[in-house]
Amino acid sequence: MTFTLPPLPYDYSALEPFFDTATMRLHHGKHHAAYVDNLNKAVTDYPDLQKRSIEDILRNFESIDPKIRQAIINHGGGHANHSFFWTVLAPPADSLPTGQLAAAIDSTFGSFAKFKEAFTAKAMGVFGSGWAFLIKTPEGKLDLKRHSFQNSPLSRGNSPLLSVDMWEHAYYLKYQNRRPEYLEAFWHLVNWPQIEKYFSFPS
Ligand code: MN3
User: What sign does the CA torsion over 117, 119, 125, 130 have?
Assistant: First the structure.
């Protein structure tokens, strides 16, 4: 198959006690895998798309055949969003941003504490299924975005730096309707060294 489920960069149990093993197993092994399967079905008759990365396709999705465009947005977006999400998480280390990223966060949001508050509010404001993102614009500026369903920041010309999955499947087993507790847990797992790498990539 053209698109494949990337292995998690850590064990299913590595994010305990904040993200539990059962949720991670289901989230990666079933939900993410289903996006990959459905994406592969969508591109069956499109050999040119099969040769490209999903990130490249989403950045240029206007050029895709309208017949499969929504399937690419849904399943391709789901594949790209999840692949990205796993990389911005890490076993609990309570790391913090440093260097140029820390400076950009301070100058954009006032302080790291204010950034955390604003990102959390953005995530809490996701109505129904969707994601909150910290993104870098083509001009290199930081901003916060909410995206419904599996819409990708890549399709709007932005580069994701940090995300949090606000679909119920991401948290319901352990946290049920307690979204604030899920978000509190999330902050212990943010992989700031990786986000600094994304920030310093050329836009
Ligand atoms: Mn998910």
Answer: negative
pLDDT for the residue numbered 202 = 64
How far, in Å, from the CA of 50 to the mean position of ligand 1?
23
Q: Measured in angstroms, how far is the CA atom of residue 86 from the centroid of ligand 1?
A: 10
Which domains, from first to last, does the chain contain? 19-203 (3.55.40.20)
What's the CA-to-centroid distance between 149 and ligand 1, angstroms?
10
Question: pLDDT below 70 — which residues of the chain?
Answer: 1, 202-203
Cα–Cα dist 123/100, whole Å = 24
53: CB partners within 8 A, 6+ apart = none
133-138 CB contacts, 8 Å cutoff, 24+ apart: 133/158, 133/160, 133/161, 133/162, 133/163, 134/160, 134/161, 134/162, 134/163, 134/195, 135/159, 135/160, 135/161, 136/161, 136/198, 136/199, 136/203, 137/203, 138/203
> d(Cα 78, Cα 179) in Å, to the nearest integer?
21
pLDDT at 108: 98
